[in-house]
Design brief:
The chain is of the alpha/beta class. 42% of the residues lie in helices and 14% in strands. It has one domain: Alpha/Beta hydrolase fold, catalytic domain (Rossmann fold, 3-Layer(aba) Sandwich). It is built from eight helices and six strands. Strands 2-1-3-4-5-6 form a six-stranded parallel beta sheet. Helix 8 links the parallel strand 5 and strand 6. The C terminus is likely disordered.
């Protein structure tokens, strides 16, 4: 527990330094990063308890690279409150569906969804429901619950979830449909970006399982590792 608490604190305090480094290296990154040949639409989803402004640097970078990036438009990501997860997910999806469809129509192109942490779960589930309007899903440190790898969960976060939900994080995740993705869900290209120094979510909980990568031969699945802190996504 002490080690996991230390990881969280290191992640929080290290994010400021990482943000400074990213700003200093922004010009170099702009030179080597892909440039969109047209203003491809992108919607970004903030992580749990994060304001929309947390992904403003990412949106600004994407816009400089020729994309048309905007935030999800729902303010701070408060996650589920009193309602059950499935009801909460349906409510979020309903609020975002028209926004995504309009954006796709305005752009005459399918929308790419980029989600950080919990925002990546929203992006994935929204893509499952709006397959025709979505181009791909990219997740940044997004947790998926694996029932056979409970040791990977941050013990402090697992304790908080267990206390608030009166069941373990694994039980809660399984009951609410948050197990690892099946090979073809959603039926779109997916990229899972994870980090070995993430202090909140273990890297092994963020990648797409190898079995899914092998089975999804019709839909591209990619997992890639970066050296980044959770709070500086």
């Amino acid at each position: 527990m002490l080690l996991d608490t230390t990881k969280l604190l290191q992640d929080l305090f290290g994010a400021a330094a990482e943000l400074t480094l990213n700003q200093l290296g922004g010009r170099l990154l702009s030179r080597i990063a892909p440039v969109s040949d047209r203003k491809r639409p992108v919607i970004t989803f903030p992580g749990f308890m994060s304001p929309e402004a947390s992904l403003a640097p990412l949106n600004q970078f994407l816009n400089r690279q020729g994309f048309n990036a905007r935030s999800w438009g729902l303010g701070r990501n408060l996650g589920p409150q009193e309602e059950r997860w499935n009801a909460h997910l349906e409510a979020i999806t309903k609020r975002l569906a028209d926004r995504v469809k309009r954006f796709a129509d305005e752009s005459s192109a399918r929308v790419s969804l980029v989600g950080h942490s919990l925002g990546g779960i929203y992006a994935r589930e929204l893509a499952c429901r709006l397959n025709g309007e979505i181009d791909r899903v990219i997740t940044l440190g997004t947790p998926t619950i694996h029932p056979y790898a409970e040791y990977r969960h941050n013990k402090l976060i697992s304790t908080i979830v267990g206390w608030s939900q009166r069941q373990s994080a694994t039980e809660w995740g399984g009951a609410n449909g948050l197990l690892h993705w099946s090979a073809d869900r959603p039926k779109l290209p997916c990229v899972a970006i994870h980090s070995p120094i993430d202090g909140f979510v273990h890297e092994g909980n963020c990648w797409i399982p190898t079995t899914s990568l092998r089975k999804a031969d019709r839909m591209r699945r990619v997992k890639t590792s970066v050296c980044s802190l959770h709070t500086s996504a």
